[in-house]
Amino acid sequence: MGAFERENAGQGRKPAAAGKAGSSGPAGDRGPLRRFLSAALDIVYPEGLYCLCCGDIIEPSRRHGICDRCSSEIYWNISDPLERDLDMFSFDGVLPCCRYGYRPRQIISGFKNGGRPYAAKPIGSLMGERLFMSGLEADIIAAVPMHRDKLRARGFNQAELLAEQAQLEYERLGGKGLRYIPGLMQKPVATDSMRGSDAVKRRSLLHTSFSLSSQYADIIINKRIILADDVVTTGSTADACARVLKEAGAGRVYVLCFASGSGWSPQYERSDLI
Ligand SMILES: [Zn+2]
Fold this sequence. Notes:
Rossmann fold, globular, binds zinc ion
């Protein structure tokens, strides 16, 4: 059981028992633009038509865009993979939907590098459901930021799209009070050149490469913040972001991601999937 789950023991939720949330309320600040973008994604991406992993046609009832066969090859809903190392990190817990194995790699690769920004909808929805089911309550959800050069090259920050979709799904399931703040953090320093650096150097470089957008300095004080990203592996990026938020006065910082690769023992590996 992760730290956040201990804190919220007994408060876990089941989506099936939840009523459908209205769009009003403290987190219901959906403007016309957000509604339009959601509708546009529905047109570009006919929900449940093709599996995000194998591309097979799937039943429209499969809500998250993954066929039954591929889904059975994914380790879902794992506990906090970095729990044993939490003292090393500035964040207070990690909520992954699944382990970063072969199928999740396919999904994330297609999403980020294969020109499929529409995949944010099913992936982000899974993250929203994961957050809701954890029972963890938070005030703000925001994305791990991307440097402007990378943003220009890719055309979108996948973490930003996921944060927005996760908030929408969380609210749809009945979650309250979670506000999505686009651009809460910035990444003024590019860190692509860090590839190959050792962990210590990487950590020290990362520490100085993120910042809080100044207009939100007052808003985050003592707040519980969910930091969204597609994948968490070493935890060093999330740690650097969480440190910035904590130093700026945030109360708690939790990481919500689609897949996580850390903290897994060899016995959990399945050779047929790797
Ligand atoms: Zn499939």
